Amino acid sequence: MISSPTWGIFLSMSYCLNPQCQHPENHAGVKFCCSCGSKLQLKERYTAIRLLGEGGFGRTFIAEDAHRFNAYCVIKQFLPLSQVQQNPNLLEKATLMFNQEATQLLQLGEHPQIPTLYADFEEDGRLYLVQEFIDGQNLLQELEERQNSGKPTPYTGEEIEDILLDLLPVLQYIHSRGVVHRDIKPENILRRKSDGHLVLIDFGVAKQLSGSVLIKTGTKLGTEGYAPIEQLRGGKAYPASDLYSLGVTCIHLLTGMSPDELYEPMTGRWLWRCNLMKKGVTISERLSKVLDKLLQDWVSERYQSAQEALADLYLLPPTAVKGGILTSFQKATAKTARGWKCIHTLNSHTNYVIGVAISPDGRILASCSYDKTIKLWHLSSGNLLGTLVAHSGWVTCVAISPDGKILASGSLDNTIKLWDIGSGNLQKTLMGHSAYVISLAISPDGQTLVSGCFDNTIKLWHLPTGNLLDTLTGHTGYVEALAISPDGKMLASGGGFDDHSIKLWDLSSGNLIANLKGHSAAVRSLSFSPNGMRLASGSEDKTIKIWDVLNMQLIYTLPKQTAWVQAVAINPDGEILATGSRDSTIKLWNLNNGQLQYTLKWHSGPITSLAFSPDGARLASGSWDNTVKIWQAE
User: How far apart (Å, rounded) are the C-alpha atoms in residues 39 and 96?
Assistant: First the structure.
């Protein structure tokens, strides 16, 4: 992977892909190699810029894609070494591996932490893959840089936990699709510069699963030291095999020592704990237990799924106690602080999940997506109940009526659709907006549906009939967020684009009551407290603000976040504020004092929406990782 300072050297070059070319470097814009005369552009589209690396089966190049405004991509060229080409059996396996990477990436589809496959083809008798370019360093490169810093350990225990929390959901995703990676190691994990997330690469040795065992065995692929015994001896691999390799990767990063240095073959013990003790370094007992279980020799004694490992890892310890005594503040927060555990991950959407809503009886969860569908789920079990299809554009928002009978959905097809939840039948289509519908809210009495739109307007509809009641104007940008007070008297709306205001309206008359200013970017989400006295707002300016509705003034601003805040929700007892951000985390705050209680890190993409169940015991979250997660308080 190329680091930033190197870019300028290669922007004015092209690289010949002919393996026999003696001088493959050419000036940019040249169509044919000046040395050997070979054509430089594959498929009249892809131009290699620089050789990234080569191995026994091929070469990898950084390249430009002329059909995507010369955006960077990666070209993989199948080019086995001569000893491989001279061995028919080995050549067959190598060819299978190369083709298999395209098959696996296609099967896995688009995932934000797996490189997207753009193309696979044959040209001039050679096989090629074209993949997404991930700008960043692999963890081995990162480790080598850190080892020069003079710290006792290259990575802290907290950083190793973050690595596990970032990668385990990726493994859960690929394993759920019948794929075992089989070569997890620091070199195959990239840290993306743009957002810091880890990306799993190199699926060339990945295998299909048949039940829990590989379809093909006897191909002993993987990297010695990281691969478990079942993979090296018998060529078999399971999801637990990937988890073992991830565990070895973690202790390598934690200690800075290679797997060979950390394993004692005479006793069959890992020595990573001894290494840390010699350096006077301690990590949490929770992380230690997780690493120990990942590193078990016998498959049956390891975690059988990434989800099991996550369940043990993510549960946060009780509030830290100094000297065995709780401070008065800790005593106060201990009454409301609760652990939260992810009990279901819902995977049926094929594109970003944008909105979630829970029915008033707490039985039904609705989710909407850029895949143009709405899905209904059983909240307790996570079972899919049905899929609603009628919108011709991305579905951006959903709301459920107080009686639980009607679901409203808004879409980029400029319409609102009303559905009967019991039957799943479409009842009405409301047309009147001249642009995308991006926010919805329903009044507590079930009479009024409110919609916010890209046309900068808010429309009020009579929900039972679908008739338009009023159009509210005043926002200078699109209306990104809506919320109605629990007594049904007040409507709050948040402005997007260049309108950073929160407006408060009298819902019955449509009159503007107040204009709250304080955010410096689009207001993405709003939520009233159960007593209607407070309003929480999340914004693209990376802040969360709590407002006094009665006095129309700001109470406090929570610590600035690392990314846009896209979702806020207040639980039914008014004590917990949940926020979701583009950094892929959900944070739970004490609403009364603004103290952070928990951070939930299971999602692998930005959080778009949050909803508490009526009893406050469950929280649903939607994400760009195409999933909905259901969390349960403990």
Answer: 27
Contact 528, 572 (CB under 8 A): no
3-state secondary structure of 280: coil
Distance CA(513)–CA(149), nearest Å, equals: 57
Q: Calculate ∠ Cα 177-182-186, nearest 5°.
A: 115
Contacts of 481 (CB under 8 A, 6+ apart): 439, 452, 492, 493, 494, 523, 524, 525, 526, 537
- Alpha carbon 49 to its chain centroid, in Å, reads 30
pLDDT, tens digit, 9 for 90 and up, residues 115-174: 888 888 888 878 888 988 988 999 999 999 888 877 777 899 989 988 998 898 889 888
Model pLDDT for residues 301-347, shown as the tens digit of each residue: 999 998 888 777 754 333 322 332 333 333 333 333 347 889 899 99
Is 420 among the residues known to form the active site? no
Name beta bridge partners: 356. 367
Binned at pLDDT 50, 70 and 90, residue 211 comes out as very low
**Residue 595's closest CA among 333, 315, 331, 335?**
333
Catalytic residue among 65, 120, 166, 183: 183
The b/e string for 343-374 (b: 16+ C-beta within 10 A; e otherwise) is ebbbbbbebbbbbbbbbeebbbbbbbbbbbbb
| CA separation for the pair 615, 379 (Å, rounded) | 12
DSSP state letters, 576-631: EEEEEETTS-EEEEETTT--EEEEE---SS-EEEEEE-TTSSEEEEEETTS-EEEE
CA-CA distance, 67 to 421, in Å (whole number)? Answer: 44
What pLDDT is stored for residue 187 in this prediction? 92
Selection from 456, 425, 462, 421 nearest residue 438 by Cα = 456
What is the radius of gyration, based on Cα positions, of the chain?
27
26 touches 15 (CB < 8 A): yes
Distance between CA 441 and CA 400 in Å, rounded?
8
* 3-class DSSP string for 324-349: CECCHHHHHHHCCCCCEEEEEEECCC
Q: How far apart are the first and last CA of the chain?
A: 43
Q: Report whether 72 contacts 45 (CB < 8 A).
A: no
404 within 8 A of 395, measured Cβ to Cβ: no
